[in-house]
UniProtKB/TrEMBL annotation, chain A:
Sequence similarity: Belongs to the ABC transporter superfamily. Macrolide exporter (TC 3.A.1.122) family.
Keywords tagged on the record: ATP-binding, Nucleotide-binding, Transport
Protein name: ABC transporter, ATP-binding protein
PANTHER family: ABC TRANSPORTER ATP-BINDING PROTEIN MG467-RELATED, LIPOPROTEIN-RELEASING SYSTEM ATP-BINDING PROTEIN LOLD
Cross-referenced SUPFAM superfamilies: P-loop containing nucleoside triphosphate hydrolases
ABC transporter domain mapped to chain residues: 10-238
One function term, GO molecular function aspect: ATP binding
Entry GO CC: membrane protein complex
Source organism: Rhodopirellula sallentina SM41
InterPro entries: AAA+_ATPase (IPR003593), ABC_transporter-like_ATP-bd (IPR003439), ABC_transporter-like_CS (IPR017871), MacB-like_ATP-bd (IPR017911), P-loop_NTPase (IPR027417)
From TrEMBL, chain B:
Keyword DNA repair (UniProt): no
Name of the protein this chain belongs to: ABC transporter, permease protein
Membrane topology note: Multi-pass membrane protein
Organism: Rhodopirellula sallentina SM41
A GO cellular component annotation in the UniProt record: plasma membrane protein complex
């Protein structure tokens, strides 16, 4: 793909994030410069505490940096107020969390509709479930689903709003290998079929083989960016 | 339905036990509020329209005999819109089936067939024909008490002569909405009745043609009553007026006003307590839910639900609970209000006393509960709104526990791990723990407040009728009786002991305050009619000086040693300056006492008596009574036992009804607080508890951790509740302190025990319900998922 036709979805400039913990300052991000291209599948790798979640949260408008800039298309997220960030999340971002964060009092279908109700151009909730292969579990409550199934519902929820970007923080962290693969397949399929720009955080370096690009974080900084010309499917990953 | 609202409904269903407990507390508060406000409005509006339609007077005065020639001058008093003059006499009735005495107050009806003021409403039968002799219209309560109907005959002893009266009508009057005989505390339907008779009959019987002895004035709107009373007094004092008074000193009006004031008081303190508790309960319940749903909130925010959406979501949850509670409370309030008005109907006699819903109070109830709920949960909901989503994504750090002070003071290992857990749970959140204790103690306090009035009444009865007044019969004479009459009375067969008294109408002044008071001259070494202090000790009647009861002293603002001015309103009307020598305790009326001998000297009269107190052989009471009634000089005879019984019956009936409500409401508070606290503990600790079960603790041991806290709260709440209850009872006695009666702050030990018992019972029930859930803990489920 020639570079010129590619749109930059995210661009960060000298992004830092410092947490003040009493006397101690925790510098979670120390000058991150990064671009994400439309439609690409990026994997974020890094040791625990290296700042992956912090970066993803800032990209998703859940958190704000201490200094530096985040551009989403032409919008400066760092200049947005809380209401604007809310709108941004509502209209553009889909999240998948490590612990699923489903609403236990709503069924799988209702959990998805909870989000599509406030989205601009959502998919049908049943179609979204179809994509993750859980159509027949639509009326089950989270407590009636296994961890992997819950995570797939969470993915269906994230994609049902038809987001521009899909941000996943350790989506397989709580899952066994097999279930992890099923979940990753679902994510990859959305990336492929809907062209959703996707960033996935993982501890598992082998997952990186699925990505277009692998960004490694270390100690709050980008340690390396690796292009991966030979993407493999989740099923072919070596765990 | 939006999915967020569906979540709301499901959360609510999940929460139903707690929601119901909280809703019921709100219901209880709103019900009491709406009930009192509706009863207030019904009573107030009915009173007003009765007063207006039947021309209830503003100013009243009685004289001995005033010629009709004065009437034009009465009409000229500035501000007076209407004048009514009449004859009023209290006479004894001869009711065959009654051994106790009954007094009738005869009121004249002019030839026109209706009074100009204080008009008579005919409930049954007809108005008497003023031109016929011997017809009478009888007040309804009295007629009902005796089963009189139009057509019956009744015999009265009028000016010493027995007269046959034929009842033609049964009536009501704005002046006697409640009929209380002067000098008694409560109405006695059987022994005091109002009889309207023709003016001609009364003039003939009492030789009062061309004269009157009672005046009522109605003022044009906006006129100053106090100055009118002064002008009236100046006109009438030459004719034996004992001083006029306004509605404020009119007994029926006073009783109604006291009742209205009580209702207003109840409409304030009851919602204050109940809604305060409800706010607290909502707060702990919502805080808990928000903590539990921390990650759900984070997800909602991550997907673009705004802070406003989140805030509204939780406020809606609160508002649904409060709205349901309020609506139910309004319904119950209407029902109770209707019942209360029904109860009033038996007590206060109006042409028609109907329940009127007070829509304003309904609006206020909604406003009040909404505000309380929002204020109560504001901080919790705010924390949800402000929760940074990125942070909520991270699991909450484990709560920080520390060994508490108690543990450090005790030798190590002296406490079991369960007890340690209980202590640490309590000390970790001292504010929440204290609020729970305060909440439960409110239930104790409500019980005490609800029951103390009965204790106080019992004490009053004991004090007044067993300790202070030990006579069996009280006789009053129409004219001051001479020594020979007294001698006769005192030596009737069956009279064991007797004392005489002299009573005169006066106005006592101190500085710029004054009060119309009867001063009673009593025998110094009395053993029947005794004066007591608050410690129930006899107050010796001093040789010189005057004794006031504490209420009078308070009204006048005098202390022992002050000099008061006593204007005698009888005969030669001397004005005396007397030192206040002692104060006595009495729970009804405002009275003053002097040494009888000194009173005679001050009045420059011989040894006469206005009445006598008699101790009578128990078997002879009826014969003595009958004998006394036959004597022309005897004005009234009252039997203490009969008065006491009727008093106790009326009061007890009223109090019992109130009491059952209060027990229910106190139970509602106790259950509300205990159930919520226990339920929240269970939810907070279910993981810990399940873990304990998994590693081998028994259900019993696990329950200790859960219920130990509740037990500790309840134990701490009981003494606190006693204190709060005592303080509230004190406030209530201050609020109910009227000239007619005062309520002593007396709370029996039994009431304290009962309050503790009800709350312990409510605690046990709620604890038991929650405890059953310990056995149902999902050991695997709880451990599998993250909290
Ligand atoms: N709210 C916070 N307050 C204080 N420190 C924080 C906060 N959030 C993150 N940190 C710190 O910032 C650093 C980066 O955290 P971050 O969660 O981004 O790491 P991560 O790479 O996602 O780690 P992991 O793989 O364990 O999830 C860590 O040292 C963490 O302790
Ligand atoms: Mg992380």
């Amino acid at each position: 793909m020639p570079m010129s036709t590619q749109t930059t979805v995210f661009r960060t400039v000298d992004l830092t994030k410092t947490y003040q913990m009493g006397e101690v300052q925790v510098r979670a991000l120390r000058g991150v410069n990064l671009e994400l291209i439309e439609g690409e599948f990026v994997v974020l790798l890094g040791a625990s505490g290296s700042g992956k979640s912090t970066l993803l949260n800032i990209l998703g408008g859940l958190d704000t940096p201490t200094s530096g800039k985040v551009l989403y298309l032409d919008t400066d997220l760092t200049a947005s107020d809380d209401a604007e960030l809310t709108r941004y999340r509502r209209d553009h971002v889909g999240f998948v969390f490590q612990f699923y964060n489903l609403i236990p009092s709503l069924t799988a279908k209702e959990n998805i509709e909870l989000i599509t109700e406030i989205a601009v151009s959502p998919l049908d909730s049943m179609d979204a479930l179809e994509i993750v292969g859980l159509r027949e579990r639509a009326n089950h409550f989270p407590a009636q689903l296994s961890g992997g199934e819950q995570q797939r519902v969470a993915i269906a929820r994230a994609i049902a709003k038809n987001p521009k970007v899909l941000l996943c923080d350790e989506p397989t962290g709580a899952l066994d290998v097999h279930t992890g693969i099923v979940v990753l397949e679902a994510i990859a399929r959305i990336n492929r079929e809907l062209g959703t720009t996707t960033a996935v955080i993982t501890h598992n370096a082998s997952i990186a083989n699925m990505a277009d690009r692998v960004i490694a974080l270390s100690d709050g900084q980008i340690a390396s960016v690796t292009d991966n010309p030979s993407k493999v499917t989740a099923r072919d990953l070596q765990w | 339905m939006l999915k967020l609202d569906r979540k709301l409904i499901r959360d609510l269903i999940q929460l139903r036990g707690q929601a119901a407990a909280i809703g019921l507390v709100i219901t209880a508060g709103v019900a009491t509020f709406v009930m009192s406000m509706c009863a207030y409005r019904s009573l107030e509006a009915t009173r007003q329209s009765f007063y207006d339609e039947y021309l209830f007077a503003d100013v009243f005065s009685t004289t001995v005999r005033t010629p009709d020639a004065i009437i034009p001058r009465l009409k000229e008093i500035p501000g007076v819109a209407a004048v009514d003059t009449r004859l009023v006499y209290d006479v004894l009735l001869d009711v065959p089936e009654m051994s106790e005495p009954a007094t009738a107050r005869l009121i004249s009806i002019p030839d026109s067939g209706q009074s100009r003021l204080n008009q008579v409403y005919i409930a049954r039968g007809r108005m008497l024909d003023p031109l016929r002799t011997g017809e009478v219209v009888v007040s309804e309560v009295f007629a009902d008490a005796h089963g009189f109907v139009p057509g019956d005959q009744v015999r009265a002893i009028i000016n010493g002569k027995v007269q046959e009266l034929s009842i033609v009508g049964i009536a009501l009057s704005p002046e006697y909405v409640i009929q209380v005989q002067p000098g008694t505390i409560l109405p006695d339907d059987k022994r005091f009745g109002i009889f309207w008779v023709s003016e001609n009959d009364l003039e003939a019987a009492f030789d009062m043609a061309g004269a009157f002895n009672s005046v009522s004035l109605r003022l044009a709107y906006g006129n100053h009553v106090a100055t009118t009373v002064d002008v009236l007094d100046r006109l009438l004092i030459p004719y034996g007026s004992v001083g006029g008074h306004t509605r404020d000193e009119q007994i029926s009006h006073q009783y109604l006003s006291d009742e209205l004031a009580q209702l207003r008081g109840m409409a304030i303190w009851a919602p204050a307590i109940f809604l305060g508790v409800a706010a607290f309960l909502l707060n702990i319940a919502i805080s808990r839910i928000i903590t539990q749903q921390r990650e759900q909130i984070a997800a909602l925010k991550a997907f673009g639900y705004s802070n406003f959406d989140i805030g509204a979501h939780y406020f809606n949850l609160v508002l649904i609970i409060s709205m349901i509670g309020t609506t139910l409370g309004i319904g119950i309030g209407f029902l109770l209000g209707d019942a209360m008005v029904g109860a009033y109907d038996a007590f206060y006699k109006f042409p028609s006393l109907e329940f009127r819903p007070d829509w304003l109070s309904v609006a206020v109830a909604f406003l009040l509960t909404t505000l309380t709920s929002l204020i109560g949960t504001y901080l919790a909901v705010r924390s949800a709104v402000l929760l940074p989503p990125a942070e909520a994504m991270r699991p909450e750090p484990p709560p920080s526990y520390r060994p508490s002070l108690i543990e450090r003071l005790l030798p190590p290992r002296s406490l079991s791990p369960e007890v340690r857990m209980v202590i640490r749970n309590i000390t970790r959140r001292p504010i929440k723990a204290s609020l729970s204790v305060v909440g439960i103690s409110m239930a104790v306090a409500v019980m005490i407040v609800g029951n103390f009035s009965l204790d106080a009444m019992n004490y009053m009865m004991d004090f007044q009728f067993r300790l202070a007044q030990r006579q069996d019969l009280t006789v009053t004479f129409v004219e001051p009786a001479t020594e020979s009459v007294m001698y006769e009375v005192q030596n009737l067969d069956g009279v064991l002991a007797s004392e005489t008294m002299r009573s005169i109408p006066t106005r006592i002044r101190f500085q710029n305050r004054s009060r119309r008071v009867g001063v009673m001259g009593v025998e110094p070494d009395a053993s029947l009619f005794r004066l007591l202090d608050a410690d129930e000790k006899t107050v010796r009647v001093p040789d010189f000086g005057i004794m006031l009861n504490t209420k009078l002293a308070e009204i006048l603002g005098v202390r022992i040693g002050d000099l008061v001015i006593v204007e005698v309103l009888e005969d030669k009307r001397p004005t005396l300056t007397i030192e206040v020598a002692a104060l006595v305790e009495e729970y009804s009326g405002v009275n003053a006492y002097m040494n009888k001998q000194r009173l005679h000297e001050a009045l420059q009269e011989s040894n006469v008596a206005s009445g006598a107190f008699l101790k009578v052989d128990a078997n002879r009471i009826e014969t003595v009574f009958a004998e006394l009634q036959r004597r022309p000089g005897v004005g009234s005879v009252s039997i203490k036992d009969a008065a006491m019984k009727s008093f106790e019956k009326t009061v007890a009936e009223n109090i019992m009804v109130m009491r059952s409500f209060i027990v229910v409401f106190a139970g509602v508070i106790a259950i509300g607080v205990v159930y919520n606290t226990a339920r929240i503990s269970l939810s907070e600790r279910s993981r810990d508890l399940a873990t304990m079960r998994v590693v081998g603790f028994t259900n019993g041991e696990v329950s200790i951790v859960l219920l130990g806290e509740i037990a500790a709260f309840t134990i701490a709440a009981i003494p606190l509740g006693w204190m709060i209850g005592y303080a509230l009872a004190g406030l209530m006695t201050a609020g109910l302190d009227t000239d007619n009666y005062r309520i002593p702050l007396v709370i029996e030990r039994g009431t304290f025990v009962m309050a503790a018992f009800v709350v312990i019972a409510a605690t046990t029930v709620s604890a038991w319900v929650v405890q059953r859930r310990v056995t149902e803990l999902d050991l695997i489920g709880v451990l599998k998922t993250r909290e």
